[in-house]
Amino acid sequence: MRIIVTGASRGIGYHTTMALAKYPDNHVLALSRDGDKLQSLQKAIQELKTAGRFDFLAIDLTQPLPTSLIEKIEVMGGIDILVNNAGQLINKPFLSTPLEDWQSIFESNLFAPVRLIQALTPFLEKSKKAHILNISSMGGFQGSSKFPGLAAYSSSKAALANLTECLAEELKEKSIAVNCLALGAVQTEMLATAFPGYVAPVSSEAMGTYVADFALNGHKVFNGKVLPVSVSTP
Ligand SMILES: NC(=O)c1ccc[n+]([C@@H]2O[C@H](COP(=O)([O-])OP(=O)(O)OC[C@H]3O[C@@H](n4cnc5c(N)ncnc54)[C@H](OP(=O)(O)O)[C@@H]3O)[C@@H](O)[C@H]2O)c1
């Protein structure tokens, strides 16, 4: 499988990439802004007993996509799976969250996946069975517990979940499945920012392993689904 993972420099994306890269048949392209951390990820993959092909590109996904991304995809011969994992969290009371913060969080959590999906659909539609996997949050899952300070974050994740359902319909003619995992608490830098002092029951390695497996196999049995993946609240 030829796979792109966004937000691979740390947390869930890092471990998703590690879990996907251990298969010799996979070719993974990792994206995030921090090139040094992506280089460390490359070193960790080179130390695996078995590893597929790996490449990375340090880009800010809230900016127009560089031609170097398309060039790397052409070298890969196309794309089968896109994991939209990169995300940003702002923890501020609603009344003191300026519109600039709302715009920033929607840029990274919704518009960046939109931009990437639009740019990569011409490649994905050439795959025999493509999968777009969007990573949302329990905060963006209808009817879930909500927490003060997370209005902008949770709204952006709800929008990503709804986009998933819309795109599954719109892209089904192109044989591109689109699913969304609404994650519960996972121990990462993002969680520590949102809930200082709270210790999540799930490690980023365990969740990354699950996300990797779902990216490879979930579209064999699901399409257009927003699935809660959570053992705790938050
Ligand atoms: N941890 C949780 O409890 C939890 C719960 C529910 C959902 N989630 C979701 O799971 C995903 C991963 O979360 P995490 O906890 O692993 O977060 P994290 O540790 O903060 O990592 C976020 C990743 O996104 C990348 N990123 C952020 N903005 C970017 C941008 N503009 N361009 C490119 N890359 C960008 C970061 O890399 P750079 O800084 O190098 O760019 C980093 O690799 C997120 O979508 C998050 O909303 C997490």
Please tell me about this protein's structure.
With 234 residues, the chain is an alpha/beta fold. 42% of the residues lie in helices and 18% in strands. The chain contains 7 helices and 7 strands. The protein has helices at residues 11-21, 35-46, 67-76, 99-124, 151-170, 189-194, 204-217, and strands spanning 2-6, 27-32, 53-58, 81-84, 130-137, 176-183, 226-229. The protein has a 7-stranded parallel beta sheet, with helices on both faces. It is globular, with a radius of gyration of 17 Å. The model has no long low-confidence stretch (mean pLDDT 97). NADP nicotinamide-adenine-dinucleotide phosphate is lined by residues 6-13, 32-34, 37, 60-62, 85-88, 108, 135, 137, 183, 185-186, 188-191, 200, 204. NADP nicotinamide-adenine-dinucleotide phosphate (NAP) binds next to α1, β5 and α6.
Strand and helix order? EHEHEHEHEHEHHE
Number of strands: 7
Q: The biggest beta sheet, please?
A: 7 strands, parallel
Q: Count every helix, treating DSSP H or I runs of 4 or more residues as helices.
A: 7
From the alpha carbons, calculate the radius of gyration and give it in angstroms.
Answer: 17 Å
Shape, principal axes of CA atoms: globular
Low-confidence stretches: none
The averaged pLDDT comes out at 97
Bound molecules: NADP nicotinamide-adenine-dinucleotide phosphate
Helix-strand makeup class: alpha/beta
Distance between the termini: 34 Å
**What percent of the residues sit in helical stretches (DSSP H or I)?**
40-55%
The largest beta-sheet arranges its strands as 3-2-1-4-5-6-7
